[in-house]
Write a structure and sequence with these properties.
The chain has helices at 2-45, 55-81, 88-108. It is mainly α and 113 residues long.
């Protein structure tokens, strides 16, 4: 009886991520479908306005977030693993964040203050 319960538990544990992925995919699919239909109707009614995307604000926000997460991961992984390939898990987002912040500074006009 104990072996059957362990097998049933393993099956349930294996099914949970599959169900989560299917449900998440369903939500994303219907969001995209309804968003497309909404935009189509707005275009037909002549009321559609193209959304404005501020690349500078996005690069600043993403750069700050990636730099802070990357710095935290780098420090944590360096303390836990030392100098190993696992440290790339912190160095990669850190360097991406620094790159985005550099892009923001260059596009904004640079300067030292």
């Amino acid at each position: 009886m104990g072996q059957q319960q362990a097998t049933a538990a393993a099956v349930i544990i294996a099914i949970i991520p599959i169900v989560g992925i299917v449900m998440g995919s369903t939500v994303v699919f219907f969001y995209l479908l309804w968003s497309h239909k909404r935009k189509t109707l707005l275009i037909q009614a002549g009321q559609y306005q193209k959304p404005r995307f501020d690349l500078l604000s996005f690069s600043l926000l993403a750069g700050l977030l990636l730099s802070s997460v990357g710095a935290g991961l780098t420090v944590f992984l360096a303390a836990g693993l030392g100098a190993s390939f696992g440290l790339l898990g912190g160095i990669i987002p850190l360097s991406m964040g620094i790159g985005l912040l550099a892009y923001y500074r260059i596009k904004r006009g640079g300067g030292s203050g």
